[in-house]
Design brief:
This protein is an alpha+beta fold and 172 residues long. The chain is 31% helix and 25% strand. The strands form two sheets. Strands 1-9-8-7-2-5-6 form a seven-stranded mixed β-sheet, sandwiched between helices.
C-alpha cells in the first residue's frame, strides 16, 4: 500500500496506471469533469484514453453521482466507443460519494479525489484541491471493494433507497 498526495494521484494513477488496464477498468467518483492527460506529445481528454482502452478490448465501468460538466459531455459525444460499445458501462447514482479506480482487479486507488482536474492534481498547484488516497495491491481489500462496487452497480441498494424519488436514473 502506498500513500499518494495531490499531484502524485494524477501522475501515478491517471497517467501511469489507468492506461495499463488489460481486462477491465472501474472508475467510481462523485463528481466528474473534463480532464486532460498526456498522449504522446499532446494532451487529450481522458475520454480518448478510455476509448483507446475499449479498442484494445478493455471493459470499462464508470459510476458517478451527478451529471458530468458541460466540457466532459461535449467530449463524450466525440467518442463513439463510449456510446455504442457494450464494453463501456455507465451508471449515475446520486448517493455515490466513493472515489476509487480499480485496474484489472490487481491494483486500486481509493481516496478523496473526484475525477476532475482539481481533484486529481492536474491543475495548477495554486488552484487544485488538497487530496489524499492509497494505491493498493492487497488482494483481500481488492476483493471486498470489488464485491461492494458490484452491489452498487447491480442496484442491490436501489429498491430500499430513500432517494429513489429524486434519482435521475434508477438502476433497478
Amino acid at each position: 500500500m502506498k500513500l499518494l498526495l495531490n499531484e502524485e494521484i494524477y501522475q501515478k494513477v491517471i497517467v501511469e496506471l489507468l492506461p495499463q488496464a488489460k481486462k477491465f477498468l472501474w472508475i467510481v467518483t462523485a463528481d466528474i469533469k473534463d480532464l486532460h492527460v498526456p498522449k504522446g506529445k499532446k494532451f487529450v481528454p481522458l475520454l480518448e484514453i478510455l476509448s483507446d482502452l475499449i479498442d484494445d478490448g478493455v471493459s470499462i465501468r464508470l459510476m458517478h453521482a451527478k451529471e458530468p460538466g458541460p466540457s466532459f459531455r461535449a467530449d463524450f459525444d466525440r467518442y463513439p466507443n463510449l456510446i455504442n460499445s457494450h464494453q463501456f458501462e455507465r451508471i449515475l447514482c446520486p448517493r455515490i460519494h466513493t472515489k476509487a479506480i480499480i485496474v484489472d482487479g490487481k491494483k486500486a486507488f481509493i481516496g478523496s479525489a473526484n475525477l476532475t482536474g482539481a481533484g486529481l492534481g492536474a491543475k495548477n498547484a495554486h488552484k487544485r484541491n488538497f487530496e489524499a488516497g492509497f494505491l493498493t495491491t492487497d488482494a483481500e481489500h481488492l476483493r471486498e471493494m470489488m464485491a461492494w462496487i458490484d452491489q452498487l452497480y447491480l442496484g442491490d441498494f436501489c429498491q430500499k433507497c430513500q432517494r429513489r424519488a429524486v434519482c435521475p436514473d434508477p438502476i433497478a
